[in-house]
Amino acid sequence: MNKTELNADVVQWLNQKTKSSSDRVVLLDGFTFMLSKLKLQGSVRLTHGDFFHQRFWKSVDRTLNYNLLRKKKLPISLYEFYYKVSVSEELIYLENGLAKITTKGIDFLEKPYEEQLDFLLSKIW
Q: Do residues 106 and 45 make contact, with C-beta atoms less than 8 angstroms apart?
């Protein structure tokens, strides 16, 4: 099982965000939204460093009301974590400057909420 580094700033932000949310886990909601958006779009353009284009992250950030992005800055650690997990666990694949969801990624989206949460938390602890 691969572990992915998660910076302390992300944990602090999640803690603050969770206090104001319901019984949903903010970490998982963002991750599944990212995969669902990729599934809906079919593909997302990558930057030269093989990372989702800034417009994709801005859309995610705005829709989920995370307010993590500032003008002309790269996505913060949370989005890097989402990206690294999705690539390392083969939920998405990168090809010819594009990212696309895999069958494994689609299967993940169809799993029960608790299984999705267990999976994502296992990448941290």
A: no
Which tens digits make up the pLDDT trace of 70-81?
Answer: 665 545 788 888
17 within a domain of the structure (yes/no): no
Could you tell me the pTM of the whole model? 0.77
DSSP letter, residue 109: H
Q: Are strands 98-101 and 92-95 parallel, antiparallel or unpaired?
A: antiparallel
3-state secondary structure 50-78: CCECHHHHHHHHHHHCCCCCCCCCCCCHH
Quote the tokens at residue 105. Answer: 């990624």
Q: Do the domain assignments include residue 8?
A: no
Residues spanned by the domain of 58? 25-122
DSSP state at residue 78: H
> In what side-by-side order are the strands of the sheet with 98-101?
44-45, 98-101, 92-95
How far apart, in whole angstroms, are the C-alpha atoms of residue 100 and residue 102?
6
